[in-house]
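request received
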Amino acid sequence: MITLLDLLSIGAIGAGTFFFFAGTVGLLRFPDSLTRLHALTKADNLGLGLVVLGLIPHAESALAAFKLIVIWALVLLSGASAAQLIGRALRRDRK
Amino acid sequence: MSALPYIDVGLALLVVAVGIWTVAARDLFAAVIGYVAYGLLLAFVWIRLYAPDVALTEAAVGGGVTGVLLITAGKRLGAVKNVAPEAQPGLPLRLLAGILAVLVASALGAAILTLPDPPPSLAPEAALAADGAGAGLGNPITAVLMSYRSFDTMLEKIVLILAVVGVWSVGADEAWGGAPAPLRQSRPYAPMVFLAQMLAPVGVLVGIHIFWTGANAPGGAFQGGALLAAMWMVTMMARLTEPPRIDARWLRLALVAGPAVFLVIGLAGAVIAGSFFAYPHSLAKPIILFIEAFMLVSIAAALPMLVAGPPSGRSDQ
Amino acid sequence: MNEILLAAAGLIVLAVAVGLARIFRGDDAGRLMAIQLLGTGGIAALLLIAYATSVPGVEDVALGLALLAAFATIAFVNLIDADQGDAEA
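response:
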């Protein structure tokens, strides 16, 4: 008795988990700090977004669902900015 | 076929592993990051123990603010990279410290493992007393903090003020009254400024929301205040604003507002509601929210001042 | 359903732990990446665990975490900049 919504949820969360793993694999295997940074900030943010998408149907209220989306937007924003800041710190390290 | 016990065991092992790593870290930066990771893992543990209020406080104070406080203090001490070899404690002292730590941990573990079932607890009595005081709050934790144990909560805020005064007194005598040094020396660059400008308004909204919703749902003045403090620090770190002069009247008013309002209402309770720190039955919830609003301001003012540090006495302030 | 949420949470915590082990060995910028990883993965796992065990009010905790991860990143970047004496701004 799994509903269609549950199925979509599971699909989204599964995809999200896959992207988290992809990010970690990137962290382990990429040759260079800058590429590792890329793997980290892009893949993990996407993973979080998919997990949030999968959890929205299970939120206990419309406000909770809205907060979930705000969480994702915040993490996207701060992740992108942090990537710039960390990239700069990395570039300096090489000089 | 539940995964829960595995996750719990995994979490516990991870907490211990991160703890060991933090203690064994080579330099301050690594140790502070370990400490922040430890705080985050503890927030998980609190969620597993069905305590979202504590998880929020752990993440806000233990993870964020304390981590930044430690790293800023370490930077000021100039001890960021490594401690000089002759300043490190000798082997006998470290051995003694290790033995004492093991003894304390074993005693705690033995006490927890031999607790009677159900373990003795003040929780039922606290819940009853908090309800009986007519608090009418939906969140029992806020009811206990602001009604059953209100005196303790007020004293905690006074401790914060004392800490701020202590930090200020570390500055040079000539510098008294001036402003602390800016949290960042050079001009920040665009991504940081952009992040600060986007983050701060959202963070302030979230902080106020968490404070307001603490009456009926997980949250409260302390968690909201810690978030507001973090947002003020974000603007100071991106040099959108500068640390204020420590003799600024608004700053000093903000710092004492919380405990002062709390104390006045507590004293008034002796006259109006029959005993020190009692609230009149029908007005309990509005009064509690009123006090919490001022406490929010005090916490949001005190924590950044702790991080900003003593007045620096630079002539261009 | 709950089992799947828990399994996903466990996997994400595992991914974060493995990623951390790799980053921690690195230099200062690696430590900054650790904060990002902890923040993003931590929020995901936290939400999953809380939804699986019906803990109320976890969205606020996750919101706070997101804000604080950004705050901590800014603070640590400032520290690194101060250390390296920033030549340019």
